[in-house]
Amino acid sequence: MLMTFSILIFGFLTAQRILDEVVGQNILTKKQMTKFGTTYFLILIALSFITNNYFILWAICFAPHLGFSIFIFWLKQSRRKKFEEHFEEILNMIILKMKSQKSFRNSFSEVINDSPPSTQRILLDIRDVVVFSQQNKSIHLSAFTQKIILEFVLADQTPHAALKRLINFRDCLKIQTDFRRKSGQVLQQIRAQSFLLSTVYFALLVFVLKRFGLSGHQQIILLSLILFLLGLGVIFYGGHKIKWKI
Fold this sequence. Notes:
Elements: H1 2-24, H2 30-48, H3 54-99, H4 104-114, H5 117-132, H6 135-138, H7 143-157, H8 162-212, H9 218-241
Helix pairs in contact: 1-2, 1-3, 3-4, 3-8, 4-5, 5-7, 7-8, 8-9
């Protein structure tokens, strides 16, 4: 019983440490973390009365940690992608406020206050680097966010040209977004055609094998299959790695 209790306490303390780190990074709110922690603790208590198998207890205690870590990673990536997709709207709001004779810093602060919590966290990190020169934070930010920081730093350092610089930055982002969206549509069409050609290829492969057999044609068929798979790899993996530039 003492061993069971020790495993449960160790698992709960480990989970609490993870949750505290998540709250510190503002990934989830304290209220949400309290719900996660309470649910996890009640599950552990219930399981302590169901089984005394130490291996099962270890697995039950720490398997959710891995799942939760994966969930947090996915959530951070999802929020980063959502932020990048909606950044033009954020930039538009800053520009509109600056057109009403407000400074860049005041406009940026008002937009931060009006933003949802998930977006607000990223904007606060950007503001810390731009306004308070906390360069250590920029190391952990994405390339897109660092690009924003560079433009915002220049806008903050040149107040007389800040509005014009941000408008040019917005127009540049719009051009890049439109270009990448169109290029993405082209890639999707190519991949759809590759699926169709794959169906035709395998149908012909089956026909050839039934009609002529594998004996005596192994090298030709193997070479054909290798070239075909290589082409698919270039289309799907290589196309995904393409960095479109204007």
